[in-house]
Amino acid sequence: xxxxxxxxxxxxxxxRYPDRSYYQxxxxxxxxxxxxxxxxxxxxxxxxxxxxxxxxxxxxxKVLKEIGQTGVPCINVSNACASGATAVRExxxxxxxxxxxxxxxxxxxxxxxGMLGGAPHDGPPPEGLFGSESMxxxxxxxxxxxxxxxxxxxxxxxxxxxxNHHHATMNPKAAYRKETPLEMVLESEMIADPLTKLMCSAxxxxxxxxxxxxxxxxxxxxxxxxxxxxxxxxxxxxxxPRNPVMFDANSVTRLAATxxxxxxxxxxxxxxxxxxxxxxxxxxxxxxENLGLCGExxxxxxxxxxHTALGGKQPVNVSGGLLSKGHPIGATGVANIVEIxxxxxxxxxxxxxxxxxxxxxxxxxxxxxxxxxxxxxx
Amino acid sequence: xxxxxxxxLPATGVIRVAExxxxxxxxxxxxxxxxxxxxPTLACRACGEPVPPAPFRAAETGKLWTWSIVRRSYPGIxxxxxSAIVDxxxxxxxxxxxxxxxxxxxxxxxxxxxxxxxxxxxxxxxxTPYIGFHFVPAGGEQ
Lengths: 378, 142
Description:
Chain A is an alpha/beta fold.
């Protein structure tokens, strides 16, 4: 089977686009990625389009109506916050299978405003009567399990926000580019203990796109800036006793990580850079352990040590992460990969992780799904 | 569920209400692997045994597994409240609001008790009341 390469990768700046549709944002990202690859829409043999909220609207076809209706198959994907990684993986499968030599992957989203979470119910609205279904509360509860087991402090959770907001100051495409010292994070509005507002992801619009090609096509085009996909893993939540009454962010991620490391033939020590799903500051702490960046119960100490900050041994969320680059849900899993690609190419500018050769991109979808890709400089 | 005059309606999926108005929380247990669930399913989620897990009447005491003090929720929802995940003593895990608790007393393992309530006084469009539940510390106000 052919190796799969990322030849083009780009994204629009994340933020609010009140005057543009989600598919116009997707089309803009698609043109950027095609230009980056040195290819055109007519070279694309299939389109994989991700949107959590609008996949059913035929996002891929809508994008092609903006940039060229070539008649190729469009596969529209919704898989909660793992939608983007799912579309990338479907594209990867298309190339791996030998059916395609070049495909376009797009993630585009205009998030609903306000606090996300909850679903229609019979009877009175359950919020407040039967605990909380809001996403901050769900991830606060997950963080409190870690705090109960290991004594993780609110300051350690807050340091994730300090770090990722600092990283975002160096990313011109991040939605929020402002330093947030520890006191500011702790003093911002408490949403659900231990999560303050600055420890919750930024609810914004955005789009990102990739051009995936076969090894044959990569050689034809010149592999200079190509990035090889060494692993692509996607999981659903395996049975855990409290799930789904209590959302389990861990087992679904651990299963994907195990599969991805096995496929890539390497372990977490080999990673030079990681983009992981910091939808809330508590989640980043949990995923340090879920991805094997440290041992069980050591994640609080890992953030304190600076290991995961830019300049540390394994920088995490150098883009600013979901906390400050932003979390346009269907675009997130594509944008994480764009960030890794920029570092592996040595094109990340001020926030470049020097000498980065291998990177991991992770997303977690509520409900649940986890997608992990491991990339290597070609 | 068919409505019977004056019998309250369950405010959430795990509550069953008898014709005399008495309520209980119902779980479902797999005969093959003993895993317990809050929802009826066609087969066991845990082991895949293709037999529907059987209903059982859940325990009304348990221990706090995790929680969050919710300070901002959806518009119109009174805050703060404690959102709690409780492991009932028979292995069923249930989410609920923990009331009458000193926030400083919140800790994993806190013994709690399930108390039925009127779901905040909610009624359906015909005026039929609901029956809900919340948790309180087992030893009373902590």
